[in-house]
Design goal:
By secondary structure, the protein is of the alpha/beta class. Helix content is 28%, strand content 13%.
């Protein structure tokens, strides 16, 4: 039987946000600008961290949530791992446009909290920005977009299209969210994990610098 831990009773690992700043009406833990902006050679998934193909990798979590559950449950065990990579990208806790909004809030909070925690322990953290439905990337319902809370403006961000643009509804929300993200955060550099189709990214290529990265499997097979 797999090991599980209740994370609600202890305040969603409250120790992660001791000393943190909180952003906006949702009180999302804030990730500050990274202490060094470098261009990593690629994204190495957490479960492949021992197989990193270069010394200039971004440690990432672009895989099923269950594969990095240990980081969510016991993040203190992996502080040294986070610090050992030149770039650390917070956990990619799943956010879908059709999941309950409470879940979208919780997973945004958890990703930022862990990113904030590792940053305070010396990791060079690049914020991961994910969005779901229009409530997460617009102010039509709430005073501010959930998905951009806790992320510094005019800095570097990481986004991923992997698994997010295959269906028409997903594609629509991704494109709208991308436009909103560029408007609200005005990043100077966007690292893109996964495909960059022209019909989604073309209109915004003049807005900032985008760098494309293939997913792990394509990279290992020499397709990117």
């Amino acid at each position: 039987m797999s090991r599980r831990k209740v994370t609600i009773d202890d305040g969603f690992n409250h120790e992660l946000v001791i000393g943190a700043e909180f952003d906006g009406v949702f009180e999302i833990p804030r990730i500050n600008e990274p202490h060094t902006i470098i261009t990593p050679k690629g994204f190495t998934p957490f479960t492949k961290r021992h197989r990193a193909p270069s010394d200039n990798e971004a440690l990432s979590f672009f895989e099923y949530d269950t594969r990095f559950a240990d980081v969510l449950i016991e993040p203190e065990r992996y502080i040294e791992v986070a610090r050992s990579f030149p770039v650390f990208v917070p956990p990619d806790c799943s956010i879908y446009y059709d999941m309950p909004f409470a879940g979208q809030i919780a997973n945004t909070y958890r990703s930022r909290a862990i990113g904030c925690y590792y940053q305070r322990h010396g990791a060079n953290v690049y914020p991961l920005v994910r969005w779901g439905d229009e409530r997460t990337y617009t102010d039509l319902v709430f005073p501010e977009p959930l998905s951009f809370a806790g992320v510094p403006r005019r800095s570097v961000v990481v986004i991923s299209t992997y698994g997010c643009i295959g269906k028409p509804a997903y594609r629509l929300h991704f494109k709208r969210g991308l436009e909103a993200m560029l408007y609200y955060l005005d990043p100077v550099l966007v690292l893109v994990h996964g495909p960059m189709p022209d019909d989604i990214f073309g209109p915004y290529m003049h807005h900032t610098d985008f760098i494309h990265y293939s997913d792990w499997i394509s990279r290992m097979k020499g397709r990117g």
